[in-house]
Amino acid sequence: IPVEPFDLVIFGGTGDLARRKILPALFRRFCAGQMPHEARIIGAARSRHGADEYKATVRAAIVEFVGGNEAQSDALEGFVDRIDYVTVDARGTDGWAELAGKMRDGCVRAFYFSVAPALFGDLAERIHHHGIATEQSRIVVEKPFGNDLATARALNDTLAEHFDEGQIYRIDHYLGKETVQNLMAIRFGNMLFEPLWNSQYVDHIQITVAETVGVGGRGEYYDKAGAMRDMMQNHLMQLLCLIAMEPPAKFDPDAVRDEKLKVIRALDAVEPHHIVRGQYQALDGEHPGYREAAGNPRSSTESYIALKAHISNWRWAGTPFYLRTGKRLVARSSVISVVFKDAPHSIFGAEAGRHANVLSIRLQPNEGITLQVTIKEPGPGGMRLVDVPLDMTFAEALGPEGGDPPDAYERLIMDVIRGNQTLFMRGDEVEAAWAWADPMIAGWTARGEVPKPYESGSVGPDHAEQLLRRDGRAWRGIK
Ligand code: BG6
Hints:
Layout: E1 6-11, H1 16-31, E2 40-45, H2 51-65, H3 68-72, H4 74-80, E3 83-87, H5 96-102, E4 108-113, H6 120-129, E5 138-141, H7 149-160, E6 168-170, H8 178-188, E7 202-210, H9 219-244, H10 253-265, E8 275-281, H11 290-294, E9 304-309, E10 321-326, E11 333-340, E12 358-364, E13 368-376, E14 385-393, H12 394-398, H13 400-403, H14 408-418, H15 427-446, E15 452-455, H16 462-469
Parallel strand pairs: 1-2, 1-4, 2-3, 4-5, 5-6, 7-10, 8-15
Antiparallel strand pairs: 7-11, 8-9, 9-10, 11-12, 12-13, 13-14
Helix pairs in contact: 1-2, 1-14, 7-15, 9-10, 9-15, 10-15
This protein binds 6-O-phosphono-beta-D-glucopyranose.
6-O-phosphono-beta-D-glucopyranose is lined by residues 211, 230.
């Protein structure tokens, strides 16, 4: 179903994110017939381009990042027809009147701030000053949303000077992933799991987001961020919220976000000995180690972090949540595992062993769900038990569409146009997440801690294994 006609202005329209993610996502939605004839995308940046030159940039981006037949087809020309460009100076006066002149009445106006956060205030102020925004206009901002609580607050305050919270769409692209949305469907669309979803039945929960990529060309940004700010405070935090929150009364933006916020606010401070930070080392001279990639030979920034979190509320008191994420690990794998408690009593005797059910939700790749169940080992040798997987992949269960879900940005950008904030972070949520992360960062900085080295292509530092071993538990394999 096509969305309403819109004017989408992409500030930073020539930048990496626009070329890699935003424009390809828009193109795919165009191909899917979701973009009405009147939709227009206006690139805006400081570089002096004519519209035709920008169209060529867009064409090249689609060919590079969408590729295949789609990008060759007439569709590409149809898409490019909807593209325009304005040269604007975010800190000056150039281009603003021209941009104002391009805005059409009766269309949704959305402004994507795909620029450094230092420019958010300038953009917001100028959009407002030139009367470019209406009360229904939306702005979209990317992470990193601040560097700590103080800077996030300052950003929220700056945006609030010109826009209501209901107009601000803070992107965490994990929320746009089909499988992440599925967490809510699995939890709240089934009767089977929810009664067991608490500390009485759940021994612990693991959230792993493992990547094989290193920091690549983003060393300068990453070295100031590290895995805590880049992944843990936002993406893993969102996963934790969705897996731990109370059922919202309905699937509506504030109902969902209120419940997520309660989870974040119920998190205990994480004790220093429950945090493991790591830094990847070079591999056979083939791949550079972290410090080389980051261009900082003495860097003490972590490219890996594991920690044990506790949620102090009625549902989860006593159930640890183990979270880990890192770069240059053995495999790309994002999985949430809910490990249930052992049966209270084994009628089969001690030799039957200990067996626990585990519900694993694979977010990427090979998206699907596995429920580990215990059955009788076949054969006449008595009652021995064995664990087997009850396995489902979305690709098999749902056909090609299930196996090839749309990119997170496709869903999120269309939600901006539709005016649906459910999958976007509210200002108080982001601030609460920083309030949880900040003391950890301050602690290891004050103690002068250096991350533990780990081999590229491994599962991370040994200390992370010990974090669970100490509790008589083990990480589920990354591969
Ligand atoms: C980004 C981080 O937000 O998420 C990157 O800045 C990370 O460092 C990326 O690689 C991971 O996203 P995905 O969708 O590839 O899991």
